[in-house]
Amino acid sequence: MTLAQGSSIEGSNPILNIAIFSVFVVITLGVVIYVSRRKAAASASDFYTAGGGFSGAQNGIAISGDYLSAASFLGIAGAIALYGYDGFLYSIGFLVAWLVALLLVAELMRNTGKFTMGDVLAFRMRQRPVRAAAATSTLAVSFFYLLAQMAGAGGLVALLLDIRSTTGQSIVIAVVGAVMIAYVLIGGMRGTTWVQIIKAVLLIAGAGIMTLWVLSLYGFNLSSLMNDAVARAGQAGTKLLAPGAQYGASGTTRLDFVSLGLALVLGTAGLPHILMRFYTVPTAKEARRSVVWAIWLIGLFYLFTLVLGFGAGALVGPEAIRAAPGAANSAAPLLAYELGGTVLLGIIAAVAFATILAVVAGLTITASASFAHDIYVNVIKHGQVQDESTTEVKVARRTAVVIGIVAILGGILANGQNIAFLVALAFAVAASANLPTILYSLFWKRFNTQGALWSIYGGLAITLVLIIFSPVVSGKPVNPTTGRSASMLQGVDFHWFPLDNPGLVSIPLSFLLGYLGTVLSKEKSDTKRAAEMEVRSLTGAGAEKAVAH
Amino acid sequence: MSTETPSGKTEPERAQPDWETVQASPEFQALRSRLRRFVFPVAAAFLTWYLAYVLLASYAPAFMAIPVVGAINIGLILGLLQFVSTFAITTWYVRWADKRFDPHATAIREEIEGGTL
What we know:
The structure holds two protein chains of two kinds. Chain A is an all-alpha fold.
């Protein structure tokens, strides 16, 4: 590893940052080993859902740890620092989305499913095709989300540990991946959940302390903080307080924002790694409690980022942020240094790393559960597996290792890609392929296998096609100062879809496809299973019970 | 497809309740409409309020920029109101579910599990 002298962020001490991060890894690994020693994650229900043994409060904290990724923390604070109000719009979409999960999805999913999203979607359908489809979209969403986190790790390394060589960054990405695989293999869902709980507490407490610190500098007057941020930004300052600094340029960018807003609010309740967390509690009532905890914690955190963003704008200044490596992503770390010097910067850097680690572990366990439970057991083995629970866990563990390696390689390749774009892509697929299918399954009696397949595969395909032919991939104008286009590919232009975000088109089309697939099929829906699903989802009768431990 | 079994097959075999009879019972129908009468209108309301906010932010930035107190403008107040409404709906729903929904759901579940329905 090349630890060059000098620093990427002025005042950053790479050795201290690595030391604090190592302490976090050692403590969490200790916790993971401790909680899994009490009961080895040997059975499938233990490995996937910790036997449903977490309380609503524990799960709610873990959900916020799972949901508040590095993109939320570094990305939103940075966007607010540079674009003011437009950065705030992201947080609102990410938060309001939880009401969809609370009112329409969480409890009903908890009552009908066991381990995966496929359990619910395939409940009253033909098992194999629907499970294969559910697993495909689970793997797609998890993969994009995973890439975003790993690419973020690369950027963070450059920023905080001053590792600038690509080889050095790749090694750190590999280390992050290896630690994550260890969490998942040793601790299963129970260990992963505790890592997420620890991380959530650190992240929210860290952001809370910085928020109070910033506010105290302004006599707890938000208005004077914002005025200071405006003054510091100079000419561009007046635009900070109102929407439009980032998205108001033209009719297309405005429409793009509406499209993004739609994907954010409808994507959350279709994210497989969030849905799976509802199975870690014993009852629907506890699932409800978890979402309530999650909403309060996530809402509070986004209020903190509002203050941190404007604080970074006022105390660090947009010019210094733009000039730092990582640009917008460096706003929160720079603010930490401004407030508390090298030590606070080191702590915030370690928290940001911990964030990536916890989110990646959650994604890996979800993807491996979906592969082992939906594809291996139900599609490949037709549900006929000897000694099912043990075999399933064995397959899931192997899958976790494979996914970990894929994530490391993907992260190395995606290093330097736009993180926000990858996260938005995951949300767009979740909102298009998953949410319509989930809602139809839970609330529409007539919905059948063909409808489910059309909405999942159709939603997935439409989203991917629209993104491939969007300006995100090719054809954005070349920036004269850097000589590079903001698109992923340079020097080619094959885009025909005008928007960066496909949600506005792909979400309504997926709902339509689910409807058409159902009404155009001769297949009768299975009324017996539909009755069972509806009664179980509402009453909790026959739901998976928590395993005592 | 008849050889395929749903995921519930590993549960211990016991007499399956007659789900269709339960579903058709007036108690269950009342429970179902009770839930839908609450969650559908509330979901429609908060999604409309959110979309209205997103559309205002996209197409009426001048309106959002009208200052109210100091640097605090209409846009920020509406944004913070989204937080307030989210917290309020959450609290309202939980109270409703605990008092008005759970007792009925539990009663039906106990009847199913006791085999009386």
